[in-house]
Write a structure and sequence with these properties.
globular; 8 strands; alpha/beta; 8 helices
Length: 201
């Protein structure tokens, strides 16, 4: 089976135009989860963007997560939080605040030790790879190892993936970011990617 798609928003989108662009993208292939990336936005701008995107993403049937801000996730009705900073302490705090109803995912995994330390903390998934930028070959190796060994779902973040690239990690979710948003028509780019992946499944 092809992995489910997990979409990561661009680092610094046009705050006025991006919500409409996202709505267009979400009319295409099914997106299981959407992470609102913080980038360099300040607290107020990020909160405003996240609140709008939560409404858009949830209306399209996606679970919407915010980055590293449990209080914001709760205040705007997000489905959960993606923890990238603070290590095990931050993960435990997020799980305590949001579980069992909310989603707690963890990223910024640098090693097998990190993955095992984070994965035992009642998280809903472990993400391997960066939120944006270049492809990290180590992330694919870690994602494959995790998917073959543990029950907690793996997310392989492949931000610059080519549409015809085959994801052989066995991860339950494939996270896309720059390979969608850097194109002139992100909706068409995502549709082409999803079609190519289904053909290989």
């Amino acid at each position: 089976m092809a992995p489910q798609l997990y979409l990561i928003t661009p680092a610094d989108p046009d705050l006025a135009q991006f919500p409409r662009q996202l709505m267009s993208v979400l009319t295409g292939p099914e997106i299981a989860a959407l992470l609102v990336r913080r980038g360099s936005l300040d607290d107020a701008a990020y909160a405003e963007l996240a609140e709008r995107l939560v409404q858009i993403g949830q209306a399209a049937g996606a679970a919407v997560l915010v980055e590293d801000d449990v209080a914001l996730a709760r205040s705007i009705g997000a489905d959960g939080v993606h923890v990238t900073t603070g290590g095990t302490k931050a993960i435990r705090a997020a799980a305590s605040a949001l579980k069992p109803d909310g989603i707690v995912g963890v990223g910024n995994v640098r090693s097998r030790h990190d993955a095992m330390s984070f994965g035992e903390l009642d998280v809903d998934y472990v993400m391997f790879g960066p939120l944006g930028g270049d492809i990290d070959p180590q992330a694919a190796e870690l994602a494959q190892w995790w998917a073959e060994t543990f029950e907690v779902p793996a997310v392989h973040s492949n931000p610059a993936a080519a549409p015809d690239a085959e994801d052989a990690t066995g991860a339950e979710f494939l996270a896309l970011s720059d390979c969608v948003w850097s194109k002139g028509d992100p909706a068409a780019s995502l549709a082409a990617f999803a079609t190519a992946q289904k053909a290989k499944a």
